[in-house]
Amino acid sequence: MGDNKNIHILGISAFYHDSSAALLKNGKILAAAEEERFTRKKHDFHFPKNAINYCLKEAKIDIEDLDYVVFYDKPFLKFERLLHTYFSYAPKGIRSFIKAMPLWLKHKIFMRSYIARELGYKKEILFSEHHLSHAASAFYPSPFRTAAILTLDGVGEWTTVSFGQGKDNKIKLSLELRFPHSLGLLYSAFTYYTGFRVNSGEYKLMGLAPYGEPKYRELILEKLIDLKPDGSFKLNMEYFNYCAGLTMTNRKFHKLFGGPPRKPETKIEQRHMDLAASVQAVTEEIILKIVDYVHKVTNQENLCLAGGVALNCVANGRILREGPFKKIWIQPASSDAGGALGAALAVWYISLNNERKTDGVNDFQAASYLGPQFSDQDIRKFLDSKRVPYQELNYKDIPQKAAEIIASQKVLGWFQGRMEFGPRALGCRSILGDPRSLQMQSIMNLKIKFRESFRPFAPTVLKEKVGEYFEIDRESPYMLMVASVRKEKQLSLYPEQENFSGFEKLKIKRSVVPAITHVDYSARIQTIAREDNLLYYDMINAFYNLTGCPIVINTSFNIRGEPIVCAPKDAFNCFMRTEMDYLIMGKFLLDKGKQPPSLVKKVSKVEFELD
Description:
The chain is α/β, with parallel strands linked by helices. The chain has 3 domains: 165 residues, Nucleotidyltransferase, domain 5 (2-Layer Sandwich), CATH 3.30.420; 153 residues, ATPase, nucleotide binding domain (Nucleotidyltransferase, domain 5, 2-Layer Sandwich), CATH 3.30.420.40; 232 residues, Carbamoyltransferase, C-terminal domain (DHBP synthase). Helices cover 34% and strands 18% of the residues. Helix 6 crosses helix 13, helix 7 runs antiparallel to helix 11 and helix 15 packs across helix 18. The radius of gyration is 24 Å and the shape is globular. The relative contact order is 0.12.
């Protein structure tokens, strides 16, 4: 690399789900975003032209200024797996084969020429392997000089689980499990069976699990999976349909668990809760066995995680509490979106052999605030164009004003700074509420998010106060860890509440912060440090000074079926379509009660995608 030349590397993920783009400048993560945020189509899998354009704009460069473009997996290897699978199950898989082929023949097989044509890019286009992209996204942004690396997802080209080690600028993946034996696809099979959408509803299944009992755990381990002590496993493919069919499960699976899959939007029964609890228990058991084996083989103190299964924050919490590793770091965009970032990092460190320096404490993810930001001038221009009434605030007054709104039991939309990269809102595109309110979980689920009432909300807590409220002794900046509310913050149950089952458990006030306490006394925690997000931290600190509580409810700024908001227009539309009370965008405060009725847009069920 020349002394004066900037090296720009663009990573791309596309054509499966969560398409994205990420851009490095001299190895630093400059920008990263999912395509869905721009198109407003949740989990958009199309070529991420909008995300790419954003990355180039952020870097102030044109396509021809890019030195390398890299795709996150190897399409030919994936196509080989597809053909091998279809031929193995022929003629059974013909419908699935016919459905898959048009996209492959139009785009995926000829990916190099397709990317070159779409971008107008004339230099060489590189390809990373899927799980290497995941591994690179986990290790290279981490604070560790050396670490074990574990990737778990549905499937890449052939691989479903891989592990190895990272040291300085090198990664070596040692062992893998291969398709069709996949922990991610096992979990997705139960996602499908319990009536949620695959590649979208897995976190709903995780949220549903505490309402049930793991009554089917032994049945799963006896019939569906052959699990070894080292965590390796084989699935009994007699019960699954994803190799050849258009569904995840088959009649034999349905017979085993007592009936057909739940139809979306129909009543969730206790059986579905118990199924969720059972597959969650099995998943945690498998992950803990794998983690123990990885530690035994690598003898490392640190662990880095990526892949869609790494978003299972309940399992992550158990790895931290019960696993053998001293420290773990998880890529915030662990799904395929993060593959774009990992592919770019792999080129910088592996292909170009650049030096990697780390202090062992701070990561390189920039708090995952890697998306677009909008100036007050941009926001004012939008608001004025719509003739929206607003109050202009001084930034020094925003923390106190926001804290007062939240403390008065009002729901606040919060639109500040750079959009988050990954599925979690981390204090820039958030909806905020008072965690002390028992009603707030129901209000925000049903009137703001338009989603299932059982879904838990996450807390953001001041970093230095986390140990006072939760059983965790370290920061969790990316909302990827679940920990229990401390015993002294929990409330005793009344005798009649002891026998509550299913969604009756929602009625119980379990702690001094009930709105963020799940029915098993857990919470998915985000800690906030002032150096990462000054305005958000100061707002929560003002709420703490006002109420004595250093926590706010933080949920993503969107309604069900839509991506997290990106631009002022998206935030305003979401604000006006819900029963949110206030919105602070930049330095502008919007009061719902002062908005003209002509701007109010009520949401009906048909307006958003039921997932």
